[in-house]
Amino acid sequence: MGCFIDTESRTVEYPAVVMYEHDDKVLEYYAQPVKLDLKWQAPSAKKPFRVQHTPDMLVIRKDGFWIEEWKEERKLQELQKKSPERIFKESGEWRYPAVEEKFRDLGISYRIRTADEHPRTYIQNLTFLSDYLDTRWPSVDDKKLAAILAQFQDQAAIPLLHLIERGKAASSNLGEEILYTSDEIYKAIADGALSFDLMGDLLSDTHRAMVYRDPKALELGLTIIDVEVIDEHPADRRDVSIDSGCQVDYDGVTYTVVRVGAKTATLQSQDTTFDHDVSALVDKHQRGILTVHSVNAVPYKTLASFEQLTPARVEEILKRQAILDQADQGIVPVGVSERTLRRYRAMVRKAGEHPVDQRIALASRVGERGYRDRRLSDRMIELVAEVARDHYNNARNMNKTTAYKFFVLACERENQTPCSMNTFNKELERLKSDKARMGKRLAYQNEPIVWYLQLTEPVHGVRPFQYVHLDHTQLDLQLVGSESRKNLGKPWLSLAIDAESRAILGFYVTFEAPSYRSCMMVIRDIVRRHGQMPAMLVLDNGKEFHSRALTRLCELYGCSIRYRPGGKPRYGSVMERIFGTTNTQFIHSLEGNTQLMKNPRSLTKAVLPENFAAWNLSQIHGAFEKFFFSLYGTTEHPAHGMTPEEYLRRRLEETGERQHRLVRFDDLFRIETCPPPYDRPTRVVDHQRGIKIRSLYFWNDIFRRPDLKNKEVAVRMDPWDPGTAYVLAKGQWVICVSKIQPMLSKYTEVERRYLFEEIAKRSGSRVGSLTPHRLSEWVSILDPKNFNPELSDRQEESKALYGALGMTKAVPTLPPPKPEPEPVAVVPFKALKPRPVATTKASENVTKRRPAAPPEEEFDDYSLL
To answer: CA-CA distance, 667 to 850, in Å (whole number)?
Structure first.
């Protein structure tokens, strides 16, 4: 359809969208197509009530129009309890009559669907193959496809992992290039050249999944698997026991054991009944003279009753069974009357023929004695609930003693005798709501950790780059400037980690608080290192993660975004754990760490962390490089028993490297990771002045073209050079510069913002009302170093570090053309060379490790990159 569909639920709506994408009967679908607000009267209601409903999906199918609402079965049951007349289950299907009638009048079918309808294995396989089902992925080369099919000459099915390894092993033996890769195997499966059980096996389980030669081999293979499963897990137990009800085969005759005593057992056939020694039966069974068949499997109800027995009741059963065995042998038990024996025998007789039921029947029922019904009246329970709702469960955090006083007053108003405080407290504890009293975050801390008994989806994905967590944290470390050696405060670390392999994919260290720039720089670092984008970013609900620039970048490169629930950090446990590991194993061992600042009032000057700060930004970046990729990345991780780097490489080989998703770290990508202007991403071209952004005009010679006059073009701003902008004109990105670009090129976007705020404060007017001539005068006079020296030092550190890594400006700064002369103090073109990196010790070390940059080229046409 050429658009992106946003889904609200990860477990319900997202799998539904995957199914729509691969359903041939679905033509189009749209999320949240309409908002209903209507009045409806139920047949059993006296008056109509208001119905507000926003359905999930409008699905246009070949058989008509459908409105579908997706819900968890549990939530539907809760809604039914709350409003049984609105929503209910009928003939196995959920109904919403009010909404059904509304859409029926429009000729649209409405139905409620549950998450239980999703074939989870099939959906996971479709997600896994989504890259190979993309039309941009080329078909498998005939030569390599023939090499894959050649593996099936003598075999109908091959384990997926073995098939992948054969491609590498054959090439190594022949000394040639790899015969085929895992990418080509998955592409062959996606195209139907190979067969795979998408409904039953997971492609991600490479060591278990089977690949079949063709559909007929798949059909036969599934039939054989079903037979093997039946043989492997027989219905009858292999071990036997000689007990009442079991059967014994001896000399072609089948006997039934009707009673088992301590030493003898009674056997019965159609013709005769006799006693036999139990030990002799066991000896003959061991020697194979006879065969013992156990009774049928124990019913579930009997097992459930047996599991509920306490140790004391089990001991009591064994004691009473021993008494009965003694009585059967003619031994009179000591201290047991005949009446008691008759009662025990009657309990066994009434339990039926099943031996387990007979044993359980011997247990005493003392624990079931007493009055089991609640002593509090229904009205008393309602009063306790009213006190809990009106007085106890709110932000005042009233204690139980005070709440009991309100309960006594409520009882007096209704002439009820109040219960005791202990009884009231027990009932109130049952109705207590931590969320209403302490808020959702503290209540979340008191909730039990959810252990998934039925895992419907891999939490951390099944392949590298499928789920990548990205987040920020402020480091417990004080840094200093490279030249000034002044304390610059604590930096922020932005980190991206692969959820499946736990490998660090990229990081960014800065003094600036988290913003869209931090997100973009981490993504630049991921592409710089690995040459590809994640399939899905897992983010929290920070403001910087909801920026339009990040959303557009992910849409452009086919990256989905999933937001974690707010205030629930356990959903980001992978990220929180790596932050904790980084602090405890690395940061807290460096000079200038701020562990002691947890108790600042107890510190003396001799141990203040700021007095021991010794690391600068470039040094700490290099230290992180060493820690993440040489120490943490090469240490065995408990999640999978391998180092993250090794596991990442191995899983890329097994699950496919997905070559068509490669992203080149070039000027085009750096431009795409630049943010658009804050108000809107486009501007209208003025063929005389250019485009206007933040009170400044930006110009390029391409704006002289008549076909661009008054046209709207896409715009990107360079955060490392506020005097430079990029415009998408005629299908290519061109660089535009402002008239005061020589003065702004030495600043970053953060410095530019502070500079313009200072100009507005001193001039007493908005920056937008100043002419370019007056604005250039103010910029030439003011310098952020004069009114905010710490900010300038921080930005200088960042520019020196990331400029050397090639992660800042997309293209070299170009001089502004002069369409018409103006009395503006413009620096000559020869002075507009890129600002050199500060010659500090850290920057010198960075420069020495990398080759020198090539000399600048003379550009004849500034409109081309």
So the answer is: 19
Residues pairing with 682 in the sheet: 714
Checking DSSP bridges between strand 504-510 and strand 492-498, what pairing results, if any?
Answer: antiparallel
Top-confidence residue, 767 or 464: 464
**How far apart, in Å, do the first and last CA atoms of the chain sit?**
32
Higher pLDDT, 763 or 69: 69
- Segment 206-245, tens digit of pLDDT: 887 888 888 888 877 776 555 444 344 444 455 667 777 7
Task: Compute the mean pLDDT over every residue in the chain, rounded to the nearest whole number.
Answer: 80
> How many Cβ atoms sit within 10 Å of the Cβ of residue 130?
16
Amino acid 650 reads: R
Q: Specify the DSSP element, H or E, that contains 264.
A: strand 264-268
Q: How large is the average pLDDT for residues 661-670?
A: 87
Residue 26 gets the label, from left (phi > 0), alpha (psi -120 to 50) or beta, of beta
Give me the amino acid identity at 513.
A
Give me 271's structure tokens.
């013709």
Q: Are strands 247-250 and 195-196 parallel, antiparallel or unpaired?
A: unpaired
The structure tokens listed for 671 are 């431009």
What pLDDT sits at residue 420?
93
Helix or strand holding residue 682 (H, E): strand 682-684
**Nearest Cα residue to 493 out of 468, 520, 512:** 512
CA-CA distance, 441 to 432, in Å (whole number)?
Answer: 16
Q: Where is 60: in which H helix or E strand?
A: strand 57-61
Q: Which residues contact 34 (CB under 8 A, 6 or more apart)?
A: 54, 55, 58
Max avg pLDDT among 320-334, 362-376, 467-481, 794-808: 467-481
Biggest CA-to-CA distance, the chain: 127
What's residue 780's pLDDT?
73
Kindly tell me if the per-residue pLDDT of 856 is higher than 60: no
Predicted pLDDT at 386? 93
Q: Is 77 exposed, middle or buried (0-12, 13-18, 19+ CB in 10 A)?
A: middle
Determine the Cα angle at 480 with ends 479 and 482, to 5°: 130
Tokens of 115: 């998450």
Beta strands at 691-693 and 696-699: parallel, antiparallel or unpaired: antiparallel
533 vs 47 pLDDT, higher one = 533
For the cut 80, the answer to whether the pLDDT of residue 860 exceeds it is: no
Structural tokens at position 64: 């008509």
Q: How many CA atoms lie within 13 A of 703 on its CB side?
A: 26
**Residue-level length of the chain:** 865
How is residue 822 annotated by DSSP? -
List, as one string, the DSSP characters of 444-456: HHHSPPP--SS--
pLDDT in tens, 111-125: 999 888 888 888 888
**Residue 353 to residue 295: CA distance in whole angstroms:** 11
Return d(Cα 467, Cα 124) in angstroms, integer.
13
Q: What proportion of the chain, given as a percentage, has pLDDT over 70?
A: 85
Round to whole Å and give the CA distance between 388 and 434: 12
* pLDDT at residue number 452: 46
**CA 576, CA 583: separation in Å to the nearest integer?**
11
Phi and psi angles of residue 66, each rounded to the nearest 5 degrees, phi first: -135, 135
Q: Are 230 and 223 in contact (CB under 8 A)?
A: no
3-state SS class at 864: coil
Sign, CA dihedral 601-602-605-608, equals: negative
* Dist. CA 787–CA 762, nearest whole Å: 12
Task: Give the model's pLDDT for residue 295.
Answer: 64
Measured distance CA(159)–CA(167) in Å, rounded: 13
Distances in Å between the alpha carbon of 124 and those of 17, 188, 699?
Answer: 12, 18, 50
What are the counts of helices (DSSP H) followed by strands (DSSP E) for the chain? 31, 29
Per-residue pLDDT, averaged over 830-840, amounts to: 40
pLDDT band at 828 (very low <50, low <70, confident <90, very high): very low
